[in-house]
């Protein structure tokens, strides 16, 4: 089989890229290791920056999002026993975030891809990427127990932080991985109860960070900062609710308790592969970078890579010039580091550093205090939270 762009991974990044390329008349094939049911069932946060929503609208992929997406014009920050509404859109000239669960978005993009008749192969794990330094790279993959070869002009690696594409790029020796871990993790749970608020609640408590979000009008999603290495089963349900109440609840505004499910613990980390391209392999999304989840930036950052990449391919296809593709990594990395910086700053501001003394706790409180006032710090925070300007796609 042959194509122009071989896309590895049918997550949001790979699927949006396929959509943009299809609209630009550049043919592509998407290969996905997992089954369609697994891809569509993978529950993840779905906070989209304004620019990500604009991108989906521009390429005709926002039909259900425009009906079911929930606009979040701000969020609530709770600290020192008080709740402070943080108005994002009022500080950014109307830009805000939208909540639309990631698996719904993935379903929409898969349906569009199949309706376009564009090749999308599930249960097709990639075994190797070869010939990345030449002009006809090859993707080797397995399907139905047989080995197959996809010849392409370029390979787009959209298969996440643990995927084949990142490993292949690092194995060339031409890129390095920058990264940092944090001395804490998140314990995540879903509660079968209506969310206690319409917008996200974020708590910066001396006992640790806590977050209250939602998946639907009847399902809440909650997170607690826990020490790195905590086992998911280590905390009984009572203790989870007690801790959520202690960190998140303020007077007269209780949480809505309910049975817990979907328990998980994941470490927080920030990672950047630099450069994001070598030869004919270009990385996008988590394959290229991971941000700690506090600022909910992962999905929108992936979309911003993909818009830049699709623009490069369309330009090359039209003019024969690789100028935009050659600038792909430099162009993306500017934004990647800005978002990395914001996610890191928001993480360290809202989490309790293990072993912090009273002096450090007071410094943190004073920074939080600046954020809820009419300050330049608040304006800058709002701008970053709503999202830096994104290129609007050309299709
Ligand atoms: C979620 O809904 O799972 C969620 C929301 C906001 C975050 C992280 C996760 O920052």
Beta-strand percent range: 25-35%
Low-confidence blocks of residues: none
Number of strands: 20
Overall shape = globular
- Text of the CATH class of the domain at 5-68 and 101-180 and 269-352: Alpha Beta
Organism: Streptomyces thioluteus
Pfam families: FAD_binding_3
Domain FAD-binding: 2-342
Protein name: 4-hydroxybenzoate 3-monooxygenase
Description of the molecule:
Keywords: NAD, Oxidoreductase. It comes from Streptomyces thioluteus. It is a single chain. The radius of gyration is 21 Å and the shape is globular. Helix 1 runs parallel beside helix 5, helix 1 packs parallel to helix 8 (298-319) and helix 8 packs antiparallel against helix 10. The strands form 4 sheets. It has an 8-stranded mixed β-sheet with strand order 6-5-14-15-16-13-17-20. It has 395 residues and is α+β, with helices and mostly antiparallel strands. The longest helix is centred in the last third of the chain and has 23 residues, at 328-350. The protein has helices spanning 12-24, 36-41, 50-58, 63-68, 102-116, 164-171, 237-248, 298-319, 323-326, 328-350, 358-371, 376-386, and strands at 5-8, 28-31, 47-48, 70-72, 74-79, 82-87, 97-99, 120-121, 126-130, 138-143, 146-151, 154-157, 176-191, 201-205, 208-216, 219-227, 260-274, 277-278, 281-283, 289-290. A hairpin with a 2-residue loop joins strand 18 and strand 19. The model has no long low-confidence stretch (mean pLDDT 95). The protein is built from 12 helices and 20 strands. 46% of the residues are buried. It has a domain at 5-68 and 101-180 and 269-352: FAD/NAD(P)-binding domain (3-Layer(bba) Sandwich). Bound molecules: P-hydroxybenzoic acid. P-hydroxybenzoic acid (PHB) binds next to strand 15.
């Amino acid at each position: 089989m042959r194509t122009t762009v071989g896309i590895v991974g049918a997550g949001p990044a790979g699927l949006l890229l396929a959509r943009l390329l299809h609209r630009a008349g550049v043919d592509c094939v998407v290969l996905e290791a997992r089954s369609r049911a697994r891809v569509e069932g993978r529950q993840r946060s779905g906070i989209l920056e304004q620019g990500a929503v604009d991108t989906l609208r521009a390429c005709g992929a926002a039909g259900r999002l425009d009906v079911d997406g929930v606009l979040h014009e701000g969020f609530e920050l709770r600290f020192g026993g008080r709740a402070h509404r943080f108005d994002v859109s009022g500080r950014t000239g109307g830009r805000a975030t939208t909540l639309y669960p990631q698996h719904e978005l993935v379903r929409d993009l898969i349906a569009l891809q199949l309706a376009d008749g564009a090749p999308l192969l599930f249960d097709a794990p990639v075994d190797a990427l070869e010939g990345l330094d030449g002009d006809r790279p090859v993707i080797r993959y397995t399907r139905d127990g047989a080995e197959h070869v996809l010849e392409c002009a370029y390979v787009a690696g959209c298969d996440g932080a643990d995927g084949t594409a990142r490993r292949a790029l690092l194995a060339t020796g031409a890129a390095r991985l920058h990264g940092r871990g944090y001395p804490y993790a998140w314990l995540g749970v879903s509660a079968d109860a209506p969310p206690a608020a319409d917008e996200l609640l974020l708590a910066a408590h001396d006992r640790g960070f806590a977050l209250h979000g939602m998946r639907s009008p009847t399902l809440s999603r909650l997170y607690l900062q826990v020490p790195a290495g905590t086992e998911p089963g280590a905390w009984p349900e009572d203790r989870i609710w007690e801790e959520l109440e202690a960190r998140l609840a303020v007077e007269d505004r209780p949480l809505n308790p309910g049975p817990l499910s979907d328990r998980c613990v994941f470490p927080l980390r920030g990672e950047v592969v630099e450069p994001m391209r070598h030869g004919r392999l270009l990385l996008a999304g988590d394959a290229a970078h991971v941000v700690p989840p506090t600022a909910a930036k992962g999905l929108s950052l992936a979309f911003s890579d993909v818009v830049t990449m699709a623009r490069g391919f369309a330009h090359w296809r039209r003019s024969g010039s690789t100028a935009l593709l050659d600038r792909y990594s430099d162009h993306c990395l500017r934004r990647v580091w800005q978002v990395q910086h914001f996610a890191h700053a928001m993480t360290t501001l809202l989490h309790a550093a293990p072993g912090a003394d009273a002096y450090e706790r007071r410094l943190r409180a004073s920074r939080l205090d600046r954020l809820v006032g009419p300050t330049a710090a608040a304006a800058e925070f709002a701008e970053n939270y709503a999202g830096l300007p994104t290129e609007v796609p050309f299709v």
